[in-house]
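re: ur question from earlier - yeah i can do the single chain one, its not a big deal. heres the input i used so u can compare w yours
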Amino acid sequence: MALDSAYDMADKIDTLLDEQLNFAFNDKLGYLTQCPTNIGTGMRASLMLHLPSLKESGAMGKISSSLSKLGLAIRGMYGEGTEPKGAIYQLSNQVTLGISEQEAINNLRDIAYQLVTQERTARETLAKNINIQDRVYRSYGILQYAKLLNNEECMQLLSNVRFGVEAGFFSEMDISKINRLLIEIQPATLMKNIGKKLTPQERDRIRAELVRTALMQPQVPSSHRLEE
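and the output i got, formated as C-alpha cells:
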C-alpha cells in the first residue's frame, strides 16, 4: 500500500527524463500516449491483492463489474488479458483523463481498503468450513513433500496455505515466507537465481525443492481450528 512513496519515486524519475526528452503534451488533453485510453496523466497505478475468499465465494465477477464503473480494473497478476493465479489480482486505475495523479491514487487506495475489508469478512466464514480447512492442510502437506511442482499448481497451493496463515490455522507460520515464495517460484525468477536457462521439468524440480526447504521447519497447527 505504499502508493505515495512509489509515486514520489516515479515523479522524480519523470522530472529527470523531462529535462532530456520532449514529451508529447497537449494543454487540454495532457500527455499524449501511444494508446488513447492512457492520455491525460499517462499514469497507471496498481496494487497486488490476494483475494482467495472473495474468489471462492463467487463474488469476483460482480466486484469486477462494479469496479469498472468506478474507473478501476481488476485483472490477473500479469495485467490485461491474464487470469489470476493463486487468487492474486492486480487492481489498477483505468481512468487517466480528467483527474489528477493524486486523485487516481486516493481512489485506488480507498477501493483497495474496501476489498481488503470484504476479503477479511468472507475469510471469517470460509475458515469455519471443514472442507476449506482440509484443503489448506492438504496443500501444506503437498508443498512439504512434493518432488515436482509446476508454477500454476504451486501458486494455488501456496495461495491455500497463505489463506490458512491469515485465518490463523498455523500459529508460527511467517506470512512473509509465503509472500517471498510466491515471487521466487516464478519461472524467470527461478532461472535468474540459478543463473541459467532451465527446462520446464528442471524448473518444476527446483521449485519443489525450494518450497520444501522453506517449509522444512514444522509449523504448529492452531488447536482451536482443529476442534471446529
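The beta strands are 25-26, 30-31, 46-50, 72-76, 88-93. not sure if urs matches, ping me
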